UniProtKB/TrEMBL annotation:
Location of the region described as Disordered in the Swiss-Prot/TrEMBL record: 1-68
Organism for this UniProt entry: Tachuris rubrigastra
Superkingdom of origin organism: Eukaryota
Basic and acidic residues biased stretches: 47-58
Any GO BP: cell-cell signaling
Cellular component aspect of the GO annotation: extracellular space
Upper classification of the organism: Eukaryota, Metazoa, Chordata, Craniata, Vertebrata
Protein name: FJX1 protein
């Protein structure tokens, strides 16, 4: 089993309270204040390169908006419709439904090691010609978290950012797995275990966070809230990426996912350059769209570890004060109706035939999901008031 991450050492006192202003100052070596525009710039922007794990790659920046370009933000806190229309479409609902239907009916032709995360996972070639990552969790709650996170993204209107995902039952003598019976013996997967099948996507590349959350003397520096005043100098491609990041940070807060940007922030205490390297479980498609990968830590595993990771997830949420209007509208509706868990359960049961094998959230987890929806709604209202 993979060891649990160590808890953060002595989080900065008083940093996480609700009373902290969204216009909180950013700590820096000289005690000065840095704008979001300054922090957003890639350290190697002058040369057009970004660092990734010790390597360099050329950044695609797009063209700078002209002086008469329409504002990227409407009504103070929402991305403009024109900007949202430039966001790559991701995995269209019809395309995802077709792949899921085909994958559930297909037989597994082969299982290969590598390319899909931990050593217990496999890359499957399916009889319909497609490929899928088969994830075998350390425990069932990780597969449950993957499935529930996928369907919560659907409730929130951002499922196109996640690759299509279905559950499958491991049965060595079953029709789906019969061609790879020998490979299953070598995998040490338990008969009857539930695994996830996630569509394989070619040509994905690593993503560096759009702003470095640096570290000095062990204390994290947090961004000012992303607001309209600091967006004027950004390129079109940077703005399009920020639209997607605003959804990602909100999504990871709701699911309490610590295995993406939060894990990088945690590593700042021993690696001050970590935010200039690839973000965990986040990749970029060739068209520039972000792909939210591997959400096993969400909702179930993440909810068990809230005390450890919310000191990172909360300020990340507070660092964003511009949102997709559709996302904010869905959050407001879930808040008004107090229906987050009910909507998730309805969608999960309707779209995942094997949902009962893993079950749903406990009553306590359902309450936590609603409480986090309510918190996000209050934060959006707070941004509007500013």
């Amino acid at each position: 089993p993979e060891p649990e991450p160590r808890p953060p050492a002595e989080p900065p006192p008083g940093r996480w309270g609700w009373g902290r202003s969204p216009a909180a100052r950013v700590e820096s070596g000289g005690g000065g204040q840095k704008t979001f525009r300054t922090l957003l710039a890639v350290p190697e922007a002058a040369t057009g390169r970004e660092e990734r794990g010790g390597e360099e790659r050329f950044a695609v920046t797009g063209s700078l908006p002209s002086a008469d370009t329409a504002s990227p933000v409407e009504r103070g806190i929402f991305w403009s419709r024109e900007l949202e229309e430039q966001v790559p479409p991701g995995f269209a609902a019809e395309e995802a439904a077709a792949w899921l239907s085909a994958a559930r009916a297909a037989r597994v032709s082969s299982l290969e090691r590598g390319g899909c995360g931990r050593s217990s996972n496999r890359l499957a070639r399916l009889s319909d010609g497609s490929r899928a990552c088969v994830r075998y969790g350390i425990n069932p709650e990780q597969i449950q978290g993957e499935a529930l996170s996928y369907h919560l993204a659907g409730v929130l209107g951002m499922q196109e950012r996640l690759p299509p995902m279905a559950l499958a039952l491991v049965e060595a003598r079953g029709r789906q797995w019969e061609p790879v019976r020998e490979e299953l013996r070598g995998s040490h997967w338990a008969e009857g275990a539930v695994v996830s099948l996630t569509r394989w996507v070619d040509n994905l590349t690593a993503v560096v966070a759009p702003a470095p959350w640096g570290a000095e003397a062990g204390a994290a520096r947090w961004l000012q809230p992303l607001s309209v005043g600091e967006l004027g100098g950004l390129s079109a491609s940077q703005l399009v990426e920020l639209v997607q990041w605003s959804d990602l940070i909100l999504f990871d807060y709701l699911t309490a996912n610590f295995d993406r940007l939060v894990s990088n922030l945690f590593s700042l205490q021993w690696d001050p350059r970590v935010m200039r390297r690839a973000t965990s479980n986040l990749l970029r498609a060739p068209d520039g769209g972000l792909v939210f990968m591997d959400n096993e830590a969400g909702l179930v595993h993440g909810y068990r570890l809230l005390a450890m990771w919310d000191p990172y997830n909360e300020p990340l949420l507070r660092s964003v004060c511009v949102f997709r209007e559709g996302t904010a509208r869905r959050v407001a509706e879930l808040h008004r109706r107090r229906s987050a868990a009910a909507e998730l359960r309805r969608r999960y049961r309707a779209r995942e035939p094997l949902w009962a094998r893993l079950g749903f959230l406990s009553e306590r987890q359902a309450e936590l999901l609603q409480a986090r929806v309510d918190f996000v709604h209050r934060h959006i209202a707070h941004c509007r008031a500013q």
